[in-house]
Amino acid sequence: MFEARLLRSSILKKVLEAIKDLLTQATFDCDDNGIQLQAMDNSHVSLVSLTLRADGFDKYRCDRNISMGMNLGSMSKILKCAGDKDTVTIKAQDNADNVTFVFESPNQEKVSDYEMKLMNLDLEHLGIPETEYSCTIRMPSSEFARICRDLSQFGESMVISCTKEGVKFSATGDIGSANVKLAQTASIDKEEEAVVIEMEEPVTLTFACQYLNYFTKATSLSPQVQLSMSADVPLVVEYRIPDIGHIRYYLAPKIEEEDS
Amino acid sequence: MGILGLSKLIADIAPHAVKEMEIKNYFGRKIAIDASMSLYQFLIAVRSEGAQLVSVDGETTSHLMGTFYRTIRLVENGIKPVYVFDGKPPDMKAHQLNKRAERREEAEKELQKATEAGDTASVDKFNRRLVKVTKQHSEEAKQLLKLMGVPVVDAPCEAEAQCAALVKSGKVFAAATEDMDALTFGAPVLLRHLTFSEARKMPVQEFHLNNVLQGLELKQNEFIDLCILLGCDYCGSIRGVGPKRAIDLIRQHRTLDEVLKNIDTEKYQPPTDWDYERARSLFMEPEVADPKDIELKWTDPDEEGLVKFLCGDRQFNEERVRNGAKKLIKARTGTTQARLDGFFTLTTTPNSKRKAEEDKKNSAKKKTKTGGGGRGRKPK
């Protein structure tokens, strides 16, 4: 028996919004510690890694480890049926073919349940090596979303370069070029609005704007976003979801062609 | 036409081995394309009001139109195509080729009948059946591809076999052809429908040989025997043995020699002088050029050359040709997207629950006897 209850469905709704453009289907691995999801998009360019810890749920029970393959489009449709303030409970029997979502309105007057068929998916697991990143940048998530949106008008790819002075985002295309520079915030009044850069050595990498724009769908989950970069390895974009876990996106860089 | 009923058999027994992909998922991949197969597709499909496109002198240009625009589409999607052309057919295919020639004659007669009767639908149908890729078509396509900066490989024999060898050697990611024999020749990855028209919205089918073998529970040499039993281009097969029976027989007896010893040859008559051993060795050691000696190089297109070649007598629109050349150049510049597989290690474990269900289904199927079913081979 698996049962997980969240006081506010909005977190789950936002999580779904944050992954459903990248993935069409994914496996939710549930165990004692919580719910994990790890999946790559079809073209194997990006990876989503989601963790929702058991202690972040209002109630969490998982008797046996269970992997539930879900069609994210269908799941998103179901979650749209929940009100933002509704309580949501995810339920499944051990070895079940279905999962049930129960939504309860705050005053308990309305209870609705939705059952969804599970999919038998292959389990694709990427072994991600522990990496020490040369640069980590923390910045307001809305700022990052804004930059990605603005720069994607100029070109298909965006260069992120991190130096002592700060971090620079740039894009070039048919209409011209765009550069956005952010300096480290001098005095931190509000942690949420700070730009903090930790740098061992400067890094410059190029990424596809399209994917970054998919990642910024997670903006509403967290006020801050953290970018981690090292030369020639995938970028990590992490959003911490307050009190319950995090969602991490990995994105393979674009590389210069050595032979043509 | 490849292996009779193999794709259906795989879809039934090992659905896990086939993936449907979008063309854009293949960016950055080098792909060997069976040129004869795609030229044939273009001759059939690229038409205006039912007739092939022609130059001022009445020479067909459908294949050039197709090669030009569909190659551009591949390149724009970040794919690096290599076209592999057929060499001389193996002697063992002669029988098959004769059959095709007979069919062609039949179609020609039918065509005459239909023309006399004024039945336009049938005229169109039989016209298409008469389509053949000639040496001239291939030569023109090669010339065009060279102008486009796309590498061309001349196979000494069968193009599918050469494509398979290129994939095996790691020179390219996959072989693109409609012929399933690419798998029999041992190509680890086969793509179908890659060069189909965009308008048809047909997803690309990706076959992985190791998944196919796993799903069918066969080794490569057993798989080759299965393909021969299903019906290949090089020799006949046993009458009355359909796909279901073929896979059961091979699974039970493991080789064709054992199958022959154990079945009732009165009921299932193997063809006289059945030379399956030669067909088998043809699949195992096909005549191919050593991939090590093949250098694949993509270069910038020759815009003026393309205009000279395609416009003028062949009546292509100059502006569109120049635009195409620009697209080719644009796709060559800039950076390529890397994949995560290169950075992380990927492990795929098939879903245990589904595996159990499939096994149950398959064993249930085994019990129900199925006959040979209707068979008929389409001319190439």
From TrEMBL, chain A:
List the protein's name.
DNA sliding clamp PCNA
BP term (GO), one: response to methyl methanesulfonate
Localization per record: Nucleus
- Kindly list the GO CC terms recorded for this protein: PCNA complex
Q: Which PROSITE patterns has this protein been placed in? A: PCNA_1, PCNA_2
Give this protein's Gene Ontology molecular function annotations: chromatin binding; DNA binding; DNA polymerase processivity factor activity
Proliferating cell nuclear antigen PCNA N-terminal domain location, by residue?
1-124
The UniProt similarity line reads: Belongs to the PCNA family.
Task: Please explain the role this protein plays, according to its UniProt record.
Answer: This protein is an auxiliary protein of DNA polymerase delta and is involved in the control of eukaryotic DNA replication by increasing the polymerase's processivity during elongation of the leading strand.
Q: Which CDD domains match?
A: PCNA (cd00577)
SUBUNIT field: Homotrimer. Forms a complex with activator 1 heteropentamer in the presence of ATP.
Annotated Proliferating cell nuclear antigen PCNA C-terminal domain residues: 127-254
State the organism of origin: Bombyx mandarina (Wild silk moth)
**InterPro entries for this protein:** DNA_clamp_sf, Pr_cel_nuc_antig, Pr_cel_nuc_antig_C, Pr_cel_nuc_antig_CS, Pr_cel_nuc_antig_N
Assigned keywords, A-Z: DNA replication, DNA-binding, Nucleus
HAMAP family, alphabetically?
Answer: DNApol_clamp_arch
Provide the leader sequence positions. none
* UniProt keyword annotation of DNA-binding present: yes
Q: Is Nucleus included in the keywords of this UniProt record? A: yes
TrEMBL record, chain B:
**Highest taxon of the source?**
Eukaryota
* Pfam families xref list: XPG_I (PF00867), XPG_N (PF00752)
Record EC number: 3.1.-.-
Is the keyword ATP-binding assigned to this protein?
no
The cofactor(s) it depends on are:
Mg(2+)
Gene3D superfamilies in the cross-refs: 5' to 3' exonuclease, C-terminal subdomain, 5'-nuclease
Q: Which residues form a coiled coil?
A: 94-124
UniProt main location, coarse:
mitochondrion
**Where is it located?**
Mitochondrion; Nucleus, Nucleolus; Nucleus, Nucleoplasm
Query: Which keywords does the record carry?
Result: Coiled coil, DNA damage, DNA repair, DNA replication, Endonuclease, Exonuclease, Hydrolase, Magnesium, Metal-binding, Mitochondrion, Nuclease, Nucleus, Phosphoprotein
Q: GO biological process: any one?
A: DNA replication, removal of RNA primer
Q: A Gene Ontology molecular-function term?
A: 5'-3' exonuclease activity
User: Could you state one GO cellular component term attached to this entry?
Assistant: mitochondrion
Basic residues bias locations: 363-380
Report the cofactor remark. Answer: Binds 2 magnesium ions per subunit. They probably participate in the reaction catalyzed by the enzyme. May bind an additional third magnesium ion after substrate binding.
Q: Which residues form the XPG-I domain?
A: 146-218
Record domain XPG N-terminal: where: 1-107
Region of interest called Disordered, as start-end residue ranges on this chain: 342-380
Which family would the database say this protein is a member of? Belongs to the XPG/RAD2 endonuclease family. FEN1 subfamily.
Q: What does this protein do?
A: Structure-specific nuclease with 5'-flap endonuclease and 5'-3' exonuclease activities involved in DNA replication and repair. During DNA replication, cleaves the 5'-overhanging flap structure that is generated by displacement synthesis when DNA polymerase encounters the 5'-end of a downstream Okazaki fragment. It enters the flap from the 5'-end and then tracks to cleave the flap base, leaving a nick for ligation. Also involved in the long patch base excision repair (LP-BER) pathway, by cleaving within the apurinic/apyrimidinic (AP) site-terminated flap.
**PANTHER family per UniProt:** FLAP ENDONUCLEASE 1, FLAP ENDONUCLEASE FAMILY MEMBER
- Protein name, please? Flap endonuclease 1
Query: Which species is the source of this protein?
Result: Bombyx mandarina (Wild silk moth)
The organism's taxonomic lineage, starting at the top: Eukaryota, Metazoa, Ecdysozoa, Arthropoda, Hexapoda
